[in-house]
């Protein structure tokens, strides 16, 4: 697919990009080659190809989820200025 200078100007306008007149020809060639690549990729038959999340068939090793610290809420709330029903009370910021 070949883009003309007017196409590049229109794309730049839609994207709210300012480009110099002298660079339009280069942009047209670059964008045309990108669109040609997309056309080539669309032409490939992928009906029997399974979608995958990662190119390697690996599993991520995760550590077991276990509690390593004890609950110290009571200790921390004893030193807080104001608490109520296990919550910290703070001054109102937004009216």
Beta content: under 5%
CA gyration radius, whole angstroms: 30 Å
The helix/strand order is: HHHEE
Strand segment tally = 2
Helix/strand/pairing class, anyone?
Answer: mainly alpha
Strand order of the largest sheet: 1-2
Assign a percent range to the helix content.
25-40%
Average pLDDT, all residues: 92
Number of helices: 3
Q: What is the approximate shape?
A: elongated
Biggest pleated-sheet summary = 2 strands, antiparallel
Low-confidence stretches: none
N-to-C terminal Cα separation, in Å? 58 Å
Overview of the molecule:
The model has no long low-confidence stretch (mean pLDDT 92). The chain has 3 helices and 2 strands; from the N terminus they run αααββ. The chain is elongated and about 70 Å long. It has a domain of 38 residues. α1 crosses α2. The two termini are 58 Å apart. 37% of the residues lie in helices and 4% in strands. It has a two-stranded antiparallel sheet with strand order 1-2. It is mainly α and 95 residues long. A hairpin with a 2-residue loop joins β1 and β2.
Brief account:
The chain is 37% helix and 4% strand. It has 95 residues and is mainly alpha-helical.
